[in-house]
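Q: Here's a chain of 452 amino acids. Please give me its 3D structure as tokens.
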Amino acid sequence: MDKEFTFRSNSKISVRKEALKTLISWEKGKETLDYFTSQTFEFLPKELRGLYLEMAKGTVRHLGFLDYKLKVLVDSDYFSLPSPIRNLLRLGAYQLEFMNFPKPSIVNSMVEISKSEGHQGTTALVNGVLRKFASNPAIPLPENQAEIFSVLYSHPLWLVEKWLKRFGSKETEALLKWNNSIAPLEVRVNSLRITRENFLKICDLKGIKTKIGPLEGGVILENVGAIDKLPGYPEGFFWAQSFSAQLPVFFLNPKPGEKILDMCAAPGGKSCQIAEFIQDKGEVSAFDKAPERVKKIEENRRRLGFHSIHPILADAREAGELFPESFDSILLDAPCSSTGSLRRKPDAKWRKSSSDLERYSLLQTELLNSAALALKPGGKLVYSTCSLESEENENQAEKFLASHSNFVLKEPGPDLPNILFGLSQEYGLAILPQKVQMDGFFVAVFEKIEND
């Protein structure tokens, strides 16, 4: 944390209490961490928002390491502690390990909060454990490399073991470090409303630091708060979309006048990107099976001013039956384990298990089979995930080709961004964060053979 963050002690306690509430809600709830932080973020004073997010998200990002060390320091069974006390210890330990506040003030602040969370024994426990933690005691690490990486970089053991077998020690460690870095806000400029150059000028006038991204239309916005409070948001000048998430539409390369299906469209970023590519001249059917997510597509479509997008409440697995051979091109950005985007979703790694890969793989197969039926002969199908796992990527593409003799794998076109050159693989293109410094992604392009 930058040293310029100096607040009165009562402000510190306030923001710490809000972070603690978020951690407790996240641990016992089914929603994402982003869901819970968004409930609090907008109600905090602007000067406290960054501090709040660092405390809440940072604690979850480094949860494995914090739990490992705290478990040694707590005399009783650490995981049997009430959730408020366990998360209070985590929050205090995160600040002691990763933030630059004076250690005594951190301990004292957390002890004060503990007085409202339990009895005198609770306060004594918090005080004793955090003082031990602050003294930086030597905690023995496991002897196995996978377990060491799992502890030091706070990733589930099953995933670390999997990556070590596939990538080796050096690349796995680089990937784990990448996942623990802070992701910037990456956006796409709506070229139908403003040029990227003019958008950059507006940001500069408002004192917002920017960087040009590696993709045409992409911009990085630095040190910003709530996205809907940024200049140009109400006017529909941009939308939030990571650069990796923008790649599939570059592969799709849709043209004006085409009839296009975005199979799993919510919240609508890729549908909007498709509409931008076709200059809003054509038809983009944006499927999602959840009413609230279809509503989100509609909200984004309206704000950005795209008339070619048609949000549709439908299960994409039924697209082939509902619309046989109806689309010139199809984008299937499939639900997946999201192991390529853990930098943006620090809580996701704690919600996943190895069994999820089989579950997602089955769903992806169903979606691909549906897409094959909905695509016109001669049409293009782009399959993508934000996963790094071969079960969801290369293996999925290989199985699809083996079971669909009327499809062929297409090579990436010549107009792709320079950053992608040299990354092609046998069954598609895999973006590995530790190699390209972008969120992980996989893209494969199939063409349906014309009928004889």
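Q: Can you summarize the key feature?
A: DSSP finds 19 helices and 13 strands in the chain.
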